[in-house]
Design brief:
This protein is mainly α. The chain has one domain. Helices cover about 55% and strands about 0% of the residues. The protein has four helices and no strands. Helix 3 crosses helix 4. The longest helix is centred in the middle third of the chain and has 36 residues. About 10% of the residues are buried.
Length: about 130
């Protein structure tokens, strides 16, 4: 299976903690920038307002991450990466990457194509069971 062409400087657990801390910091800054809290009565109402604003921002960040992930997968494919590499970089199998981003790889490599017809695995008829 092709490699992912980078090495880890940290363990996966350390990377996850780094990402969580960075997102937490980002969310706090974006909440302050994007939302104006309404006047509230008491600490409980303020805590609720902050929690709901944070949740709303996380919802928007999740969508942004999905769009950026889609673009990064397309960029990797455009740069010549195949589903095995994209899957490994995304912590999934080749088939998982293919299911997540169908049609991402438009020109199969010689290893993926049928040398007699030029058809890829996806172009072959499937048997009905």
């Amino acid at each position: 299976m092709p490699g992912i062409h980078f090495s880890l400087r940290m363990s996966e657990e350390e990377i996850a903690a780094l990402a969580t801390g960075a997102v937490d910091d980002l969310v706090r800054r974006l909440v302050l920038r994007a939302f104006q809290p309404l006047p509230s009565n008491g600490e409980r109402a303020e805590a609720q307002t902050e929690a709901l604003a944070t949740l709303h921002m996380l919802f928007h960040l999740k969508g942004a991450i999905e769009r950026l992930e889609e673009q990064a997968a397309q960029d990797a494919a455009d740069a010549g990466a195949g589903y095995p590499q994209i899957g490994r970089a995304s912590s999934m199998t080749r088939q998982g990457a293919r299911n997540r981003w169908p049609g991402l790889i438009s020109n199969p490599s010689p290893n993926q194509a049928d040398h007699t017809t030029g058809a890829s695995d996806d172009d072959r008829p499937r048997s009905a069971l």
